[in-house]
Amino acid sequence: MENTFRLIGYGLLFLLDVLLYYFLHSHFTFIVMILMIVAPIVSLISAIILKKYVTVEVTNQDKTSRYGKQNEEAFFLIKIHNPTPFVALDVKMTVTVSNTFFKTEGTKTFVVPIYALKGYTLELPMLPNLCGIVSVKVTSLKIKDLMGFKFFNKKMEAEHELIIIPEEISDSMEELPGLEQGMLESEESTKRGNDFSDVQEIREYIPGDKLMSIHWKLSAKRDILMVKDRVSMSDKQLVILPELCGANNFLLEQIVVTTYSVIAKLIKDKTTVRLMYWSSKRYEYEDIRLDYIEDVNDAFAKMFYEDTYASYDEASSYMANVHPEMKAYVHVTADAGRVTVNVRENG
Asked: Looking at the chain, which runs of residues are DSSP E strands?
């Protein structure tokens, strides 16, 4: 409607200028008439060119890390790149922010300019109150020509994800009496991708070492491949099984935060932890040994790509059949509207 009124108003002004030229035969009115014909054409062409060539890039402010922290401010940068000499003063950018783990989503439209040969950078701050994977996606740009006659819509697929690590709660260990019951005497797993053996030392890579033994973070820091030299042995491991039930987002968030806090505390106390959770996608348990806090962050990042399920006993219901060798484990679930942490006998 706004564009229609603008067109009508412009048409009336042009008609007035034509009448003035007809009666006055003024060179000035003639030049104005020519400009009023050329200007809309140039305005529309420049918007069409902008639509074709502008691109959008989404990143987080700290490009060195893919992690953020729950309840700590994080910044996303939305960069519009414009390689052309044309400008736009009114661009509507549609941005969708979602948490794929908790299935939450919101959309907001920002009105921004596009500068010549530069573009525009929008700094988008957020305070994530949920852990999980926060995705910021630009779905479209609506570029209005300089004279405001028409919007040109451009579909976009620019997206960036930031993994939000749960915050630690200090009283997470108070509900864990008799932890030794959850310890499991377990031999080195033969399942592909798992290695339940102790790290004896970290040394330089020797040709023939397994790729799965490479300590990637340390290798990146030292600029040389380093491997974890392990000794296979039977050892006691604390098995923790959280229920990824999505029936209630508040309880799901509390389950994840409690699980993370318990594991982080145990890791700091030099206790080996074995995180297990039920993958409804693959219909099997994910089984991860955790020795360092970096391992915990990577494990939770992987877990956040899983689908949640409907029952608070889904993961525990298969444990006795799939892992009969396990005597007990720490079960993190919800009951009667609150999160519970119990050592549960397997069977």
From this structure: 55-60, 67-69, 74-81, 88-99, 104-114, 119-126, 132-144, 151-165, 183-186, 198-204, 226-231, 235-242, 273-279, 284-290, 328-335, 338-345
